Amino acid sequence: MLSPKFLLHCMSKMTSLLLLLSKFMFVQQKLGAPSVSEYEKLQAEMSDLQLKYNELLVAHQENCKEVIFNFWIC
User: Fold this and answer.
1) DSSP letter (8 states) at residue 34
2) 3-state secondary structure of 35
3) Is the Cβ–Cβ distance between 27 and 33 less than 8 Å?
4) DSSP single-letter state for residue 33
């Protein structure tokens, strides 16, 4: 059987966590922070944009090498 002191300690920790969650939700609501689903959608969009950026960066680097190569040949 769990001791009353341990149970009281656990209840105190749970109360603290609930209070912290309540404060977080209040700030999130007042500041207009994105919901979890909106955040996940933004993360997916950011990932897609990062992939496109990486592809464009590689293409740009290849074009720069080609321009420099052609410059030295002429």
Assistant:
1) P
2) coil
3) yes
4) P
Provide the residue ranges of all domains of the chain, joining segments of one domain with +. Answer: 1-33, 34-74
- Report whether 42 contacts 34 (CB < 8 A): yes
- Structure tokens given for 49: 């944009």
Predicted confidence (pLDDT) per residue in 3-60, tens digit: 888 788 888 889 999 999 998 888 878 888 788 899 999 999 999 999 999 999 999 9
Residue 16, helix vs strand vs coil: helix
Run of H or E including 61: helix 36-73
